[in-house]
Write a structure and sequence with these properties.
The chain is α/β, with parallel strands linked by helices. The protein contains 11 helices and 9 strands. Helix content is 48%, strand content 16%. Strands 1-9-8-2-5-3-4 form a 7-stranded mixed sheet, sandwiched between helices.
Length: 316
């Protein structure tokens, strides 16, 4: 069976690569209004089909909001969420065409003391979520002069992976492969560099996750950013890139978390758990403020055998 799956993947790869290259060539040619319009259409039309993403999204919305929002409100949130995700994916290609000019025109950092602090010459662990366009944040920050790196999972198709990395690095950002990133990150922080993590995904306990409260429900997440912050004394900043009218984006730095001084005589677990919970509280607050821009159609909460869960915990 494993051998057959490998053969199928190998046969499929040229078609995946060809389709990717075709989309990469065509999407940048579209006017900005067409990209936004296509995305909104995709979000609305998706609700008329029995899609897996629709089912998961509504279950998640029910679990988090319950009776505090009507079914119609939840469907509107989900339609906007799917449209935002579609635009984010299209923008991976659209911004690859003349990225410097397009980012300067359509992406803006909101002025604030936290934003000024972020661009200082210092190490920062940057945290965001699958909300709005998480893809464009690192490119925009690097274009404005930040020594920015983003952690990214490797795509199995090596041609696609190489092209994606090239696109993401065109404005000066560095892409660090997720696997084996620890030593690279520690060295980066010692040199006052910055690195970004997307931290709203389920990381199973057996894979190193720790359970925290996320949007009112228990969920295991990666403690790696909190552990790195504590061990290296690096400040944590939360930021989000939200869509606006006319296909524009506004990036907001919402919170700074300064870890306590490292003490090798103290156990790390409690401190790392507390920092991780602070991070998730900050992400949760932004999602509750702008639920229409978060990726609801993902299995964020997953049950493990032998564990007890709240009555509103989603079952996928």
């Amino acid at each position: 069976m494993a051998r057959w799956k490998h053969i199928r993947r190998k046969l499929r790869r040229p078609f995946e690569t060809g389709g990717f290259l075709l989309i990469k060539s065509l999407i940048p040619l579209l006017p900005r209004g067409a990209v936004v319009g296509l995305s909104r259409f995709a979000g609305r039309i998706a609700l008329f089909f029995p899609l897996r993403e629709k089912r998961i999204g509504l279950k998640n919305l029910d679990a988090v909001f319950g009776a505090t929002k009507t079914d119609a409100e939840k469907r509107r949130i989900l339609a906007s969420s799917l449209a935002t995700f579609a635009q984010t994916m299209l923008d991976v290609f659209w911004f690859s065409g003349n990225p410097e000019a397009r980012i300067k025109k359509y992406v803006e950092f909101e002025a604030s003391p936290l934003k000024d602090s972020f661009f200082e010459d210092k190490a920062v662990i940057c945290i965001t979520a699958h909300m709005g366009s998480w893809e464009i944040m690192g490119q925009a920050a690097a274009l404005l002069g930040a020594d920015m790196a983003s952690i990214a999972a490797t795509v199995k198709n090596q041609v696609v992976d190489r092209i994606l990395i090239e696109q993401r690095e065109r404005t000066g950002q560095t892409i660090i492969p997720q696997k084996g990133a620890l030593k690279t990150l520690i060295a980066r922080f010692r040199k006052k560099g910055k690195a970004a993590f997307v931290l709203d995904q389920n990381t199973e306990v057996e894979d190193g996750g720790i359970v925290v409260d996320f949007l009112g429900l228990p969920m295991p997440v990666s403690p790696a950013p909190a552990a790195l912050a504590y061990r290296t004394g690096t400040e944590i900043m939360l930021g989000f890139c939200l869509p606006e009218q006319g296909g524009r984006y506004r990036i907001r730095v919402t919170q700074s978390i300064v870890p306590p001084p490292f003490d090798k005589e103290r156990g790390m677990d409690e401190i790392v758990h507390g920092l991780t919970q602070q991070i998730q509280d900050g992400i949760s607050a932004e999602i509750r403020a702008h639920p229409e821009y978060w990726l609801w159609s993902y299995k964020h909460w997953r049950r493990s055998e032998g564990q007890t869960y709240p009555a509103n915990y989603p079952v996928y």
